[in-house]
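Thread amino acids onto this structure.
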């Protein structure tokens, strides 16, 4: 009985491996290319002076959530990391108890001050690209 089962399995395997089938013989290899995504159109970055007076909603719209946020009594410091720079945004309570941007500074990764507007542009660009998942 075992011999018959083994012979039947061997015959079935031979039929699969045999050259009598034309499966796949008329197919040729094809190259599949990924769809090309064009770079999204970005809105211009805000300038440093336009950030003064913004509340937390305006800051999140421009830069997203900060990488670091420090809360103190009547003040907050938000940190955004850019490519080669770090942007610090200082918020203080106004007369209506709303936290608003009072001061902005940019620092180099190795320390030292940098021009603020190029760092703002870098942080804003990174935020916009991440919104497009780019």
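Threaded sequence (134 positions):
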């Amino acid at each position: 009985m075992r011999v018959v089962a083994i012979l039947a399995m061997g015959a079935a395997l031979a039929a699969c491996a045999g050259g009598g089938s034309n499966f796949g013989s008329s197919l040729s290899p094809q190259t599949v290319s990924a769809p090309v995504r064009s770079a999204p159109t970005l809105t211009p970055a805000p300038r440093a002076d336009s950030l003064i007076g913004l509340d937390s909603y305006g800051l999140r719209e421009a830069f997203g959530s900060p990488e670091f946020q420090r809360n103190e009594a009547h003040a907050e410091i938000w940190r955004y990391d850019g490519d080669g720079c770090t942007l610090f945004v200082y918020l203080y309570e106004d007369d209506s108890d709303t936290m608003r941007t009072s001061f902005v500074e940019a620092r180099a990764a190795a320390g030292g001050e940098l021009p603020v507007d190029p760092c703002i542009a870098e942080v804003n660009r990174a935020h916009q690209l991440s919104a497009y998942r780019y």
